[in-house]
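> run fold Immunity protein 7
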Amino acid sequence: MFEYHGWVTIAATATGDDDAALLERLVERVGRSLRDVGMLDLVDLRWSAGLPMLHLGGLDKHGGAIGPQLLETFARVGELAPGSYGLLHVWDDQDAEHDNDFRVYRMARGQVSDHSDPHLSPVAPTVLDGYEL
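> ok
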C-alpha cells in the first residue's frame, strides 16, 4: 500500500508580505503544473484567508508509479514558489528500506528534505497490529 497526505502554503518569498499580483501569478503556474498530474487522488488548490493552499492525499495499491510523480509534484511547487512551506507524509510498504515507516518530506523556503516520522512510525505496532513484510 502507498499512502500519502500533504499540504503546502504557497508563498513567493519567506518574508510573509508577498505582492498580491505576483502571488496570483505563482498560483496560476502551480495550478497549470497540477493539471498534468493525473495519478494523484486528491489535489486541491484553493485560497484560504487570503493565502493559497495546496492539499494532496490518497492511497494506491502500488506506489511504484505514483511515488516519483508525487515527490516531483511536491518539489515542483517549491521551485515555482520558493517561499512555500509544508509537509508530505508518505508510507510505502514496498519500500525496502522504510516499509514499516512513514517518511515526511518537509518543504521550507521551497526546498524539500526527507525525514523519518516519529509520530506514526513504526507503522506496526503504532497504527497497525501487524502486517507481513
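The beta strands are 2-9, 42-48, 51-60, 85-92, 102-108, 111-116.
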